[in-house]
Fold these 2 entries.
Entry 1:
Amino acid sequence: MNVFQQLQMYLAMPFVQYALIVGTLIALCSSLLGVTLVLKRFSFIGDGLSHVAFGAMAIAGVLRLTNEMLFVLPVTVLCAVLLLRTGQNAKIKGDAAIAMISVGALAIGYMLLNLFPTSSNVSSDVCTSLFGSTSILTLTQLEVWLCIGLSVAVVVIFLLFYNKIFAVTFDEDFARAAGVKAEAYNLLIAVVVAVIIVLAMNLVGSLLISALIIFPAVSAMRLFRSFKGVTVCSAILSVSCALIGMLVSILGSTPVGSTIVAVDIAAFLVFSLLARLGVNRRKA
Amino acid sequence: MPQLTIENLSLGYEGQVILSDVNFSVSAGDYLCIVGENGSGKSTLMKTILGLQKQIDGSITFGDGLSANEIGYLPQQTAAQKDFPATVWEIVLSGCQARAGLRPFYSRAEKQLAKENMEKMGITQFAGRCYRALSGGQQQRVLLARALCATRKILLLDEPVSGLDPKVTQEMYQLIEELNHKEHVTIIMISHDISAAVRYASHILHVGHEMFFGPTAEYIRSAAARRFLGTEGGEDA
């Protein structure tokens, strides 16, 4: 059986189809706000939230909730709002608060998983939550629909608020001075990021989420000079990397999350090299 | 009726007062320069007027048909903007954001306004260029065009010429003066450059230990100016 026949066989299976659909949507969503997070110096909030999501997942497991996402989502959104608040009031204190919340959530989550094991193999459970090894292939139909619904919502919100997100990302002070409700849009950004993180947890696990958000944006920034160009490029890049990563992982039976991130890293290196070679000097 | 009246204003960070008893008013068409030593609270004063920071005490009143969201602001550049991927067009257009309100996209009229302001600032040819690839003077023109999209009435400029070479600085001052004279835009500008301040401004606000507010001619004769300008400035007057 050659590679194509093998691929065809896998692609005929419904759970693989679900995984590809959900994976593509998640990759699309996570790349959209990457540019804003990187440029607003918010990358650390994304990282902190992913740890919170892990802790929430552990609690959901202990409570034996059938649909973990319905618990993890509100908790993560709430933390996003809280983190943004502290981050705004005082820079240094905000930093420490984020570190405390994120590491704390990680520690408590791991402890809970050990104290109240839901299966006989705790370390494999933890591994799955952290690195998302197989969860994308075991999604229930409800989870798939939830993922699709939330992804569509994220994309629609992003498109409707694109100009506003640009304005508050480029210069928040100016926007506020001119009467734009920057706080409200910051809040919106934080909530959307929280949703994206919970979604992406299914795909790459909580430790690798930041990579999915940041790599495509930073790669695109190497080559493109307009906000629109960077956004479109990072969306296309993220989706292609996720698809390639998922197919490679299916064929080579490698872990899905880390394979996708490895493809993202490779793309980043290629883009950096192209930038070095002067592809982006066209308009300079 | 003045466009902006500041009465007994106290300002500072987290309850710590850095400047108190600030009193001044600005009428349509005025050109006010805010001068004072480094760290005397000039930028904080401007941010307080803009509502970016809460005042500790006193009042800020807008009048003469000016509302708080009709202000154009030219902030000092932030570190994030230095490597921000955005074209000149995207940035100038973003000045219309407050006009657009909740509408997701810019209207034709707003795009036209952005185009006109780019023409006024002489940056039309840079529309598709990346902001970070422009020179300092060109970047300031872009931010000025953006500020003009947000207002036709009043501009607040926080050290618009810092980091520019003498020739570009001169051009920038002329551009601002033109806006003030031809377009009747009220100017409030923070400046380190005291000689340019007394040359262009109609009014001076001196902040610090000694406060002064009044027409430029009066300022040159004042005690605050004599100390700040050195004996040379005082005797000239």
Entry 2:
Amino acid sequence: MGYRYMTAGYHTLRELQEQAVLQNREVWEIVRNADMSENERSAEASFEKMTIMYQAMKQADESYNGALRSASGRAGGDGAKLQQYNAQGKNICGDFIGKVMEKAIKMGESNACMRRIVAAPTAGSCGVLPAVLLSYEEDFSATQEDLVKALYVAAGIGTVIAENASLAGASGGCQAEIGSASAMAAGALASLQGGDAETIMHAAALALKNMLGLVCDPVAGLVEVPCIKRNSCGAVNAVTSAQLALAGIRSAIAPDDVIDSMRRTGNQLPACLKETSEGGLAVTESARVYQRHSNKRRIEK
Amino acid sequence: MIIFWKIGEITDMDLFDIVGPIMVGPSSSHTAGAVRMGYVAGKLLGEPIQKAEILLYGSFLATGEGHGTRKAIVAGLLGMQTDDYQIADSFEIAAQRGMEVAFGEARLEEAHPNTAVICLNGISGKQTEVQISSIGGSRISIDKIDGINTGFSGECPTLIVHNIDQPGCIVAVTSMLAKKNVNIATMQVYRSAKGQQAVMVVECDQLIPEDGIVWLAGVEGVQKVTYFPGLTA
């Protein structure tokens, strides 16, 4: 596609931030208002739709089943292990981070097992955002309304990344999936903690910077290894990035520059590292064993 | 104010494709996007499918198996949405409905890595060949219909008009839309050669009433009118 003109909305994190400041509004309102004007939805209809997304995330988390296994027979059950470990009080990461990790792994496993999830922004990265938001709702005094507003912030950041870079592993590598999800979650968490527009954008930038260059190398072509565990990594990265930004630390590279470099890095990655399973972890000896196991299981079925 | 904006990969995305859709896993591009591809192709045929030939390209060919891509495209052809638990059983359901399904490899040049060419035969003999790509998240791009470049997202009501390249066809489309109070979001016009085959792809902000489409099909020079009401309609 080439050039297309637009008359409303925001196209960069800088514009999103400036509009919030100029209009004296919260970032989530700018994102919602753009949705209203671009998609002809009322404020109520838009908010209701986002609420449905949040509730679907919650249902997916609550309906996790540690006994399920994926098509390959290899993914599943790790979320239950983490839950047990956290319950034993052995958590070395603190309660909140422990919970974030647990929920991220659970959601990633549910996805691999063809359960119903919310792509945010993609299915492979579906654990990052709910892990951070659902854990926050449980451990901090936030209302569902607050969480839905935070989802808008995440969606706004994701929209900018989609427009200026990519959200697809096949064109940008895993940085475009787990990296984008992590940036979205970091911004959302910063907004929940009362961060201003600048803090939100820098939380997102700091999270994305940590993920730059991450390749998409699914073993046996499945959204299992390394995708599921990277959800936990992306979620924790979001929390630490939000905390850095909330403490007043700023990304030396402007947030939109980080997104630009993500696009460039994605374009420079060879095809073997972009969801083709022809490089990275996907071509290791262990991956061949995993593939054989999953093929055998398919034939047996 | 009008801003000309250089885009990265996609424009006009719906916010609920960034957070959303609610879908059955495991892949937004290879499962949910694939469901949508089949869904759009089926709607573009406009009648129940007797035979579907699905040709896969790039990453769809390489990693589609583990993502349930084939099952997902067939589920979409059957009219299923991305959150349908029956996606995993689509082959069996297609067989029950007497839909013949075959897969192959698409040989394309410079196509998006997640592309499929879907060739459909309908029960009354209608045929269509659609080239669609899954461009990230669950968004798709309908790249070609019957060999002619198109390039629309399927997210809004879309009108595809095949006509003879002669005066009056474009104004017939635009005046009908104006009368029905439908606003045009984007419009693309192609022709094979002067006075020969032409195609218009018109993306709209509102749904187009059926009588407008029926009227258009009867206009002189218009050969075929295809209407897709949008993925969320």
